[in-house]
Amino acid sequence: MNEPFNPEEIRIYVGTDRSQMVGVKVLEYSIGKHTQRPFRVIPMLDLGLPDPKDIRQAKRTGFSFNRFAIPRLAGFQGKAIYMDADMQVFYDIGDLWDIPFDGKKMLIQQDIPDEHVNAVGSIVPRKRVKQCAVSLLDCERLQWNPEEIIAGLDGQYTYEELMHQLCILDESEVGYVIPFEWNSLEHWDENTKNIHYTDMHTQPWVSPVNRLGWVWINEVKEMLENNALTWEELEEEVRLGYARPSLLKELKLDEDLSVPNKERVKMLEEIDKEAGFIKHKAVYEAKKARKKAEREYVNSLNATNRMVYFWHKVTGKMKRLCGVAH
Fold first, then answer.
1. Residue-averaged pLDDT of the chain
2. Do the strands 87-89 and 194-196 form a parallel or antiparallel pair, or are they unpaired?
């Protein structure tokens, strides 16, 4: 990560932990397929960032807060792209890289088009949040100290305010200019530039039920043919519990996976069930711990503060009123 700064190189910092490295490999391969420009994919692993003291504000994945370390990792020079690991690119990444900042410090996604918000089965949030899973950062102007930002979760703001509303930046510093096509949430068509397999429960390497999983699987097949990925590497991911055992079976099926087949999905799910596979085990264990801490906290409140706490939670405000949520 400390390589000499090259302003011509497209730097892509990827939010990931060890369990999603197979996703990073597919993402990197898909980027390289569609660009002739120099680029470097930098998985942000083991950065050693602290956790907030308040477990209720803890990271939702192993890499939730890593994006705030990007400017420092980049030597506070030039700019950088941030992407999540669960993505697959279909267009020249230079198209994203060349979007002008126009005085902003961080560029994030435009408001999501109504047809995607209102689509049947859509998981796109109806309430506006700052979609930062694909973003451009001006590393020279973002003088972020990630340790200080994380410390702010112990009283200054909540996880939602930090991650969904970017409360550490003034509204005038954020540009809503990245097209939806560069962060297509569980959506793929001829205009898609980047699929985001954002539903962790159905990501293609942990579940055979994702309706677009065949797009990812076909990419993996191509990588195996081109020696960009080896069968042994996939077997190791399965052995470690990071990829579903049925993935190995699905990759060997001689059929068009884009055609829905309930019997095929049932067969693959049975393989995973018999193997005792648990999707994103560490993430969901941490979620249970947060929920337990929240219950214990609420039980410690008096009746008035408990009512205030739930009112703010329901309305999405979660401010520190009447001594609540310290």
1. 88
2. antiparallel
Residue whose C-alpha is closest to residue 139's, from 269, 309, 242, 12: 12
Using CA atoms, how far apart are residues 194 and 309, in angstroms rounded to an integer?
39
Tokens read off for 115: 């047809």
What phi and psi, each to the nearest 5 degrees, are found at residue 146?
-60, -35
Tokens 């706490």 map to which residue? Answer: 309
pLDDT at position 309 is: 62
Alpha carbons 57 and 61: distance in angstroms, whole number: 12
Whether residue 315 contacts residue 324, with contact meaning beta carbons closer than 8 Å, is answered with no
Assigned token pair, 161: 């305010």
CB atoms within 10 A of CB 75: 14
Sorted by sequence, the CB contacts under 8 Å of residue 146 that are 6+ apart come out as 47, 49, 65, 66, 68, 69, 72
Prediction pTM value:
0.85
CB 87 within 8 A of CB 196: yes
Q: List the beta bridge partners of residue 137.
A: 80, 106
**Residues 84, 196: contact at Cβ < 8 Å?**
yes
- pLDDT over 80 at 1, yes or no: no
